Amino acid sequence: MINPSDVLKSILAKKADQAEVFFSSSKTLKIDVLDQKVESIDEIEEQGIGIRVIKDNKLGFAYTSDFDETVLEETITRAIDNAANSEADEHNALPQKAEITILNLFDEKINRVPVAAKIKLALAIEKAAYAKDNKVKKTEKISYADSESEVWIVNSNGIDAKYKSNYCGAHADVIAVQDHEMEAGFGLSYVTKFDDLNPEKVGAEAAQRAVQLLGARPIRSQKLSLVLDPFVSTQILEVIASILSSDAAQKGKSLFADKLGKQVGSKLLTIIDNGRLENGLATAPFDGEGVPTQETKLIENGRLKTFFFNTYTANKGQTQSTGNAVRGSFKGLPMIGPTNLFIPAGKDDPKFFNQGFYVTRVMGVHTINPISGDFSIGASGILLENQQPVRGITIAGNLIALLEKIEGIGSDLRFIANVGAPTILISDISIGGS
């Protein structure tokens, strides 16, 4: 394996003011099954380095997956040339060295379990979906996947840190049929410990989510309480994550840009980002540029406390990075985003949220305007008073107004990958129906 420290020395020999070498490697396995047969087994491996240089406040970047000495020299030269051709920005800087706590993020069992056993696990997902309800007539996609990665960052300010991590997961898409009517349902689970993956639960959940909407019909337009399924709460939280970006706020492209210190939701609403969360899918000792991860309360009791910051936006905002530089791979510059983002579990048992419209599916959440907060999204679910399945309704309004009407937070926090939320009760919302 290449040593990033050697590459750093070569960069600094070319008179860069600051330099960083980001090495990453990844190995993924994906197994798809259908009708109790293996459809495909894909294994993908990738590794490479990304080079950032700063010269005269100008930033340059280049990457390569070829570690041949000549290619490395060409990549270094390209990064330096890119810096020379970019605009100077006084906020360009690399982070300083800080103490980093070692975390054990690697489950050896994920690697030890043979592929044959992982195939058996995928087949068990499909069996469980059919066993849950005889209305399940078809499986569209059943998958098992696992991934391991290694990251190593060195920079000219003394950072030299690395870690390994892995996770595994399962996904099911099924179709239920009744009276010539079809409904789709899904189940999924991603975990950092192989023993925590329950294939039967994934399959059964997919079946339940399909069957529960059979016979769904529109209802009349009215005002109702909304009870958001954790999957739906999580989708909305993902939109809020983009609004909590300091980059968006600094550019005036965030609904929360001028709301720091102000109420942006109900006093029941707290949103936390925790890059050190135990068993969190995005847990890491440091972020995509070597800053130690941390727990950050972004919204507390409805009040906006801070945004996600990386080193650049922290310099621009004269504050500290929150450890939220995220990097998809060595091929790109660090961006801003969440680690393990969640709304903490509340004290309410969600089974007592028994009036109103239980929203199990939303369409068009990504169309929520991140600047105005206005939205109009489609929804399906269950009318709780009579358990009537409902489809074809529209929920429209403003995001802050929606967050202000939160009246209950369930105790059933659930993560979908690295974003989590419980069942949420929202009062007095207008819905458009038939």
Secondary-structure blueprint of this entry?
Elements: H1 4-12, E1 18-34, E2 37-55, E3 58-64, H2 69-84, H3 108-112, H4 115-132, E4 136-155, E5 160-178, E6 181-191, H5 199-211, E7 222-228, H6 230-243, H7 246-250, E8 271-274, E9 295-300, E10 303-304, H8 311-316, E11 325-326, E12 335-336, E13 341-342, E14 357-363, E15 374-383, E16 388-398, H9 399-404, E17 406-409, E18 414-416, E19 419-421, E20 424-432
Parallel strand pairs: 7-14, 13-19
Antiparallel strand pairs: 1-2, 1-4, 2-3, 4-5, 5-6, 7-20, 8-9, 8-13, 9-10, 11-12, 14-15, 15-16, 16-20, 17-20, 18-19
Helix pairs in contact: 4-5
InterPro entries: Metalloprtase-TldD/E_C, Metalloprtase-TldD/E_cen_dom, Metalloprtase-TldD/E_N, PmbA, TldD/PmbA_N, TldD/PmbA_sf
Organism: candidate division WOR-1 bacterium RIFCSPLOWO2_02_FULL_46_20
Family: Belongs to the peptidase U62 family.
Task: Explain the overall architecture.
- The protein has 2 domains: 4-211, 2-Layer Sandwich (PmbA/TldD fold), CATH 3.30.2290.10; 216-434, no CATH class.
- It has 434 residues and is of the alpha+beta class.
- The longest helix has 18 residues, at 115-132.
- It contains 9 helices and 20 strands.
- The model has no long low-confidence stretch (mean pLDDT 97).
- Belongs to the peptidase U62 family.
- It comes from candidate division WOR-1 bacterium RIFCSPLOWO2_02_FULL_46_20.
Radius of gyration: 24 Å
* Fraction in beta strands: 35-45%
Q: How would you sum up the global shape?
A: globular
Summarize the helix and strand pattern as letters.
HEEEHHHEEEHEHHEEEHEEEEEEHEEEE
Overall residue-averaged pLDDT value: 97
Q: What profile does the largest beta sheet have?
A: 6 strands, antiparallel
Number of domains: 2
Distance between the termini: 62 Å
Residue windows where pLDDT falls under 50 for at least 5 positions: none
Number of strands: 20
Reading side by side through the largest sheet, how are the strands ordered?
A: 3-2-1-4-5-6
Helix fraction, binned, reads 10-25%
Structural class, from secondary structure content?
alpha+beta
| Number of continuous helical runs | 9
Domain Metalloprotease TldD/E central: 109-214
Family: Belongs to the peptidase U62 family.
Domain Metalloprotease TldD/E N-terminal: 19-83
Protein name: Peptidase C69
